[in-house]
Amino acid sequence: MATIQQPPVPAEADRVALAEDSDVHQPYVPDTTELTELTAGAIALGIVLGLVFAASSVYLALKVGLTVSASIPIAVLSITIFRYISKAFGAKPATILQNNIVQTTGSAGESIAAGVVFTLPALLLLGYALPWTSVAAIALVGGLLGVLLMIPLRRSLIVKEHANLKYPEGTACAEVLIVGEERGAQARTVFMGFGLGALYNVLMLLLRAWQEYPAKLFQRTIAGRTDTFGFISAELSPALTGVGYIIGPRIAGFLFSGGLLSYFVLIPAIKLFGGGLTTPVGQTADLISGMTPAQVRANYVFYIGAGAVTCAGIISLIRALPTIWSALVHGMGDIRSARAGSTTTRRTQRDLPMIVVLVGTLVLAIAMVVLPQIGINVVGAVLAVFFSFLFVTVSSRITGQIGASANPISGMTVATVLFTALLFLAVGWTGIEHRVLALSIGGVVCIAAAVAGATSQDLKTGYLVGATPAKQQIGLVFGVVTSAVLIGGIIHFLNDAKTTIVARDYPGVAVAQTEAETIEVQGQPFRVGRLFEQTGAAPAGKYLVDHGGAIRYLVDPGIGGREPINYDGQQVEKLDSPKSQIMALVVDGILTQKLPWVLVLIGAFLAIAIEMIGIPSLPVAVGVYLPISTSATMFMGGVVRWLVERRLPPERRGGAESDSGPGVLFSSGLIAGGAILGVVYAAIQAQKWDGRFNMSASLGGFAQSNMVAIVIYTVMLLVPLYLVARRKPGS
Q1: I need a labelling partner for 99 at 20 to 30 A (CA). Which of 428, 434, 497, 658 fits?
Q2: What band does 41 get if pLDDT is binned at 50, 70 and 90?
Q3: Is residue 108 a contact partner of residue 150, using CB atoms and an 8 Å limit?
Q4: What average pLDDT score do residues 598-627 get?
Q5: Burial class of residue 566 (count of CB atoms within 10 Å of its CB; 0-12, 13-18, 19+)
Q6: Which of 96, 103, 89, 97 is nearest to 1 (CA)?
Q7: pLDDT for residue 222
Q8: Of 378, 460, 365, 363, residue with least CA distance to 168
Q9: With contact defined as beta carbons under 8 Å apart, do 629 and 234 qualify?
Q10: Alpha carbon distance 40, 46 (integer Å)
């Protein structure tokens, strides 16, 4: 691919126009240079790569409530794929602006995945169905709102505040594109990570050649009484290891410290003080003395962690209030400046017209009301658009300051859901349908805010390399539409694949609302019934009932469920979906007023105490909420990054190079390869084919050994990650 020649000297009119920009920014491709940019090939490749990373992001977000930016690996893959096509078929080399369109289009999938997964699966936990069409419709409306509402904000946030808002991921992606244009980019690093992550999961998940969850329970028996004083476990996953490397040792350490607090302080304390009780405590029929650490977490620590995460999210939002106010002032002023500057003909300043923003927003608001898959009423649509504009502005500005990874989208969504639920409570809207309404509004807002954060990074990249904003915005629309449809289908599939049916008997509880659908269990058909609020001892959920309405089985959802053992003895790994569980607790707790507030308030004041000693409470709170097996593995990835950066020369530590170096590219490959194989394995489990490949019986003690699993994990994942990360970029 030919390097762009030295740009010609701009004409006088262009120099005057350039002077209007902050710090007279000169992009890599000059404003006066016309290059091929928005092409069918670039859009198609962006859609394909975006769908791959969208699928992996859905799986990752459902497991740990986190996603990582896909822009850099997509940019690297685009450069390499286009270069291969050029050499193999004699095609014209792709330009840097075409590669930028690919990463812009592809980045939409990851951001939509985060917004959807953080909110909509909460409906499953409240007993509702979650058809893929509803997920796709809400994702489409929220994603398009995020793109449209960023159009009038671009000149204010990306152009005028170019020197103040760095947009770290966008800046790093621009450097990758420029380096690829000048010296070529090595996608081999991403492919190596993808292949290793996929191979590791084939051997561990499909063949069961070694343990996935090595664990150690710390107990001590004195005078006939057994006390538990700790539990440690690790999910030896390539995806989680890659996430830990990308988020770095500091955040990964905070997450793991929350896990230690949960499993070495809270669970042992509950076992110690509750072990002598002879009656059940809380919403369970089991005694604390007979509970495993996992059961204690599910019945008690779960609510403490939920309170901590909710409070920490609100604290992060309160901290951002000055930024929110400033962003709103700038946003309103920018609408006027966008109108004033709408006559510009400069290529790098051409946005889609404001009429598109206004008409598009109105159409989306109408769609929320008229589409049965969404079902938001007029008041809800007005609230959704208002909160979307508010938090799109905030999300863009915050990502400009601290990056997309630290963007408190979940805190903004909790605030939206909390305010909406309180408003509904004040006007008496406490029915079953109003919980769905509040969560649907939260889903639209969360998706819009997530997409706005990613869109801002893309527009920053385009501003640095000299792209045409309007063409980027068109690429984003393509990415949003295709990703929304795929993500709806994947969530529906994963939930079905990991759903378990568990025998349950709640005497005196009858389910009056049943459906025509029947499910056969052990040769006997049962009708599907739903409880939308706790009735007696039976919590809200989906059940299988007999002809008289009596409950016989619980249909535990694959997303957010807590029953991993199916009625036939098959063990299924649930997807925790921590953020959506928070949303369900907030809405259900406020509108039904049945939340175990004591446990929730313990978590809230725990977050406040952590903040008061100068530690950011949100990552610690998320660590309390997540299983320690998850945070422990991410911590190992963070430790590898710490070891790598300790040995780097000072000039190579931190900055854009650190965020786009070989370690991050290899980790992105690990995440994509591990997560995609996780989705494939879920499909195999759903068809009950996993037993055909299981080699654990023939391998005997080797497959059951915790130490063997840890050694293999270290040799196959940690050591290669360390060695690749130490390479110089481009080597």
Answers
A1: 658
A2: very high
A3: no
A4: 87
A5: middle
A6: 96
A7: 66
A8: 460
A9: yes
A10: 10
> CA distances (Å), 520 to each of 128, 249, 524, 525, 528, in order?
20, 49, 5, 4, 10
Residue count of the chain: 731
Would you state the torsion angle of the CA atoms of residues 516, 520, 525, 527, taken in this order, to the nearest 10 degrees? -30
CB 559 within 8 A of CB 577: yes
pTM beyond 0.85: no
Q: Token pair of 318, please? A: 């309160």
Segment 407-446, tens digit of pLDDT: 657 667 777 777 788 888 888 887 777 888 888 888 898 8
Q: How far apart are CA 648 and CA 630, in angstroms?
A: 28
What single-letter amino acid sits at 726? R
d(CA 669, CA 691): 28
CA atoms within 13 A on the CB side of 129: 12
Whole-Å CA distances, 434 to 138, 420, 425, 488, 691: 16, 10, 10, 22, 43
Q: Is the pLDDT of residue 10 over 50?
A: no
Q: Is the dihedral of CA 521, 524, 527, 530 positive or negative?
A: negative
Which among 462, 596, 611, 582 has a CA at the least distance from the CA of 119? 582
Given a contact cutoff of 8 angstroms between Cβ atoms, the answer to whether 691 and 610 are in contact is no
pLDDT at 716: 95
Q: Which helix (H) or strand (E) holds 659?
A: helix 655-660
Residue 60 to residue 74: CA distance in whole angstroms = 17
Cα dist from 560 to 124, 127, 576, whole Å: 8, 12, 5
Note whether 454 and 53 are within 8 A (CB). Answer: no
Which of 396, 409, 292 has the alpha carbon at shortest distance from 334? 396
Q: How far lies 193's CA from each of 172, 238, 371, 710, 716, in Å?
A: 20, 9, 42, 19, 11
Interval 126-147: pLDDT, tens: 888 888 899 999 999 999 999 9
The overall average pLDDT reported for the chain is: 81
Please tell me the distance from the alpha carbon of residue 175 to that of residue 28, in angstroms, as a whole number: 10
- % helix / strand / coil in the chain, to the nearest 5? 65, 10, 25
- Range among 237-246, 294-303, 465-474, 548-557 with highest mean pLDDT value: 465-474
In this predicted structure, the answer to whether residue 105 has a pLDDT above a threshold of 80 is yes
pLDDT at 7: 40
Strand-pair category, 524-531 with 215-222: unpaired
Distance (Å, rounded) from C-alpha 662 to C-alpha 501?
44
Name the region of 468 (left: φ>0; alpha: ψ -120 to 50; beta: rest).
beta
Predicted confidence at residue 317, as pLDDT, reads: 66
